[in-house]
Amino acid sequence: MFFATLLSAFLGWWERPATQPKTVAPRTTQKLLSPSTTQEIVNLANAFKQTLTATQLTTAQLTYNLANAQKWSNLPVTFTPRIGIRFGDLTAIQLTAAKALIRAASGSGANEGYAEMEQLWAADEYLGANGGGTAYSAGQYYLAFLGTPAMTGTWELQTGGHHLAFANTYRDGILIGATPSFRAVEPFAPFASGANTYEPIRQERDALAAMLTGLSATQLATAQLPTVFTDILLGPGRDWQFPTTRVGLQVSTLNATQKTLVLDAIRTYVSDIDDVEAETIMTRYTNQLDQTYIAFSGTAAITTKNDYVRIDGPGVWIEYSLQGGIVIRTANHPHSIWRDRTGDYGGTGNPTSSIKNLAETIFSVDNYPNPVLNQTTLRFNLRQDATVKITMTDLAGREVITPMQRKFMAGNNVLALDLNDLSAGTYLYTLEIEGANKVSKKLFKQ
């Protein structure tokens, strides 16, 4: 019943034959589903899986590991094969369920998130019809599950193809990584496909240009790099190769208006994921803004071949590189990526902040008051942003409160616990960081 209701809700929204995908207009309205948790996304993933045959499910459902997560590219799939199931091999009903899932996991803003993906699919249709051939089409995109979609365990929703890579990694119902996130388009100039006109990646370019043109001449001189960049540095196959030294202009030296322009530019990338999770990540990047640097090469207007822009912070890494056309030689052709220094692939494979190093994340943990009457506050310090699981048991090991997971930022943190329903006695509370390290202490209830 749930599956039938789901399909009837979405069938009219996207009906595309597998063999002849049609271009659709960019969505600028609110999502039909706007999940505040991962449960809706998991439900939609399972609904899509129910439409697949056993053979198709084997193709779509793969092992969660770094090797699979790294199988994305900016090249056409005929040059660099993708993993998962191809849109062009799905029936109309299956494709409807797949798009419903992708839409729920992505942003709902105008020309962001899902609307941006629609336009990138349309761009490949345009390339196919204007000299690119069968290598370019909306059917040449893929969807894969790395791990099993569920509210427990680790899994990744991966979708992409030419000029698109979307990778959301979840652990125990929490989004722990939304990068690498790659976007590009050819042509950059507005192009028509069917009755619609498209201009994806425009908002990213405009926001980055506004950030640069908002600087003074002296600030621009500090931000400008002497190197000519013909592409982004950290494209596919360049994982965890962030420069050790940040270059350019430090954001802490900017005024409030200029800082807002930097955040506006960052938001055009972060808004490609679910709205609720995007706000969580934006809060982290805002808190790290003064330690972030901006840099560029070429012109600040970002209109000329080899113009390049970078935003580099403790977490955020964004690059935008303007290149010449491949299929349409007279067209501009930008490549753009959002990465995270600690969060790419959910931290899997990170040589400096992966699970193996999270054992050192907590410096200390304590609670006050102790003994406690009705409420206590846990106080702990994190070396880096992390998801913390909190449990409490009696001395016999029986859980006395419902286990909870929360995201916390690096630095000092507090968490209030209501213990009014507990009887007097001695209890043990445990903080666990993403399954890597446990710190336990006693608490005395009067």
Question: Any overview of this molecule?
Answer:
- By secondary structure, this protein is of the alpha+beta class.
- The chain has two domains: 2-347, no CATH class; 358-445, Immunoglobulin-like, CATH 2.60.40.
- 26% of the residues lie in helices and 28% in strands.
- The chain has ten helices and 21 strands.
- It has helices at residues 2-11, 39-50, 54-60, 66-69, 92-105, 113-132, 202-213, 217-223, 256-270, 275-287, and strands spanning 61-62, 85-86, 141-146, 154-161, 164-171, 174-177, 181-184, 191-193, 196-198, 249-250, 293-297, 308-312, 316-324, 332-340, 362-368, 375-382, 386-394, 404-408, 411-418, 425-433, 437-445.
- Strands 1, 2, 3, 4, 5, 6, 7, 10, 11, 12, 13 and 14 form a twelve-stranded mixed β-sheet that branches. It has a four-stranded antiparallel β-sheet with strand order 18-17-20-21, with no helix packed on it. A three-stranded antiparallel β-sheet has the order 15-16-19, with no helix packed on it.
- Strand 5 (164-171) and strand 6 (174-177) form a beta hairpin.
